[in-house]
Amino acid sequence: MDQAEKLREIIKKQNQSNESSARIITVTSGKGGVGKSNVSINLALQFRRQGKRVIIFDADFGLANIEVMFGVIPQYTLADLMFKGKEIKDIITEGPEGVMFVSGGSGIARLVNLDNEQIKRLVYKISELEKLADVIIVDTGAGISPAVLEFVAASQEVILVTTPEPTSITDSYALLKALSMYNGFDYESTNVMIVANRVNSANESANLYEKLSAVVNRFLKIKISYLGAIPYDQYINKAVMKQKPVTIAYPSAAASKSFQAISTRLAKNETAQVRQTKGVARFFGKVFSSKRV
Ligand SMILES: Nc1ncnc2c1ncn2[C@@H]1O[C@H](COP(=O)(O)OP(=O)(O)OP(=O)(O)O)[C@@H](O)[C@H]1O
Ligand SMILES: [Mg+2]
Known about the structure:
Layout: H1 3-16, E1 23-29, H2 36-49, E2 54-59, H3 65-70, H4 78-83, E3 92-94, E4 100-103, H5 107-110, H6 116-132, E5 135-142, H7 146-154, E6 157-162, H8 166-180, E7 191-199, H9 202-219, E8 224-231, H10 234-241, H11 246-249, H12 254-268, H13 270-284, H14 286-292
Residues 29, 32-38, 60, 63, 65, 142, 197-198, 230, 232-233, 236-237, 240, 255 line the site of adenosine-5'-triphosphate.
């Protein structure tokens, strides 16, 4: 059993004994710089406006994405929880409108090298996060590294951000292919939703989805669905420069309206998600299903 498998085993056990269940949505992409952090932050704000308690988990150890975009510097990161004895409440930082976030810091890169005891402690502490939130949005790094795939494989709901550039579409396919071969990934219990970002027309987003779904349906078992599109919008760039999410700085911008539409669709999907939880419960076995179903 490798480290990742051990971690999954422990997470499964933890889930079995944990009554609360936050909705976990992982935002990822094949290619970098396609808009994951903007999607994560603005959808988090939308959920918050629907009255949900929201935590963004910044799982990109490369760049301090969320804190830069919120203009708020966290005092501690996941690494402090893992190695410096900090508690979960110490590493949660409050952003605008009461959206909370946790920075992975260097903790994400070191996740794969932990021993059993450290993994147990970490999962125990992280499971407390679930009690503090109704929705957890995980903003991952780009690409097919284990640090990204591990988060994606553990999630029931995945938003795959893709732009119309050919390289973005092929990189999205590459990510899905790597995921389908990833140890422990279960395609039946994973809902991969495509967001087309930086599109210039409805036609362009339809094309993007058609191209991607054609190859995915042909070569992979993963099922993908279309969640929505965000237009190319200068106001996103302006908001990023101001270190403010676009739905705060420019609520009537076209991109802000798209985030609203996407979050409405996600809220409606929740019933489907509950059904899906049952599917996972079956997959994880009787004990789990008797607790959750
Ligand atoms: N719909 C859009 N219209 C115009 N610009 C956009 C749009 N979405 C994102 N951008 C721009 O693209 C850049 C990258 O966005 P973002 O940081 O959200 O991407 P990312 O996928 O999180 O990047 P990374 O892989 O580095 O984490 C930002 O500077 C942002 O201004
Ligand atoms: Mg990012």
